[in-house]
Design a protein that fits this description.
Number of strands: 0
Low-confidence stretches: none
Oligomer: single chain
Radius of gyration: 26 Å
Distance between the termini: 64 Å
Shape: elongated
Structural class: mainly alpha
Length: about 100
């Protein structure tokens, strides 16, 4: 993830925490306030994400790996004590 994009994401999240800058709706229930702030955060992030990604990629400062890279196939190390042949399970043949 790009550093600048991450910094913007954190700043945007903090800005949309109810009560930090504003509470919308002013006299709404706590669930309504949380829902409103969550939807506004998602809307602003959705609109600005691609633009900010393009700007951040110009600076090319990256941190960490992508989530999909972390979830990719794991490399297996061969154990010295096992032979390289694949184990084939025995077939169960019914006896007559």
């Amino acid at each position: 993830m790009y550093v600048l994009l991450f910094v913007f994401l954190v700043a945007l999240f903090v800005a949309f925490v109810p009560g930090v800058l504003v509470t919308l709706p002013p006299r709404g229930s706590s669930k309504m306030v949380l829902l409103t702030h969550g939807l506004l955060f998602a809307l602003v992030w959705g609109l600005l994400h691609s633009t900010l990604s393009a700007v951040a990629s110009r600076f090319n400062y990256k941190i960490g790996g992508g989530m999909l890279e972390a979830m990719g196939p794991k490399k297996h190390h061969k154990n010295k004590h096992h032979d390289d042949k694949k184990h084939v399970p025995a077939m169960n043949v019914p006896s007559k």
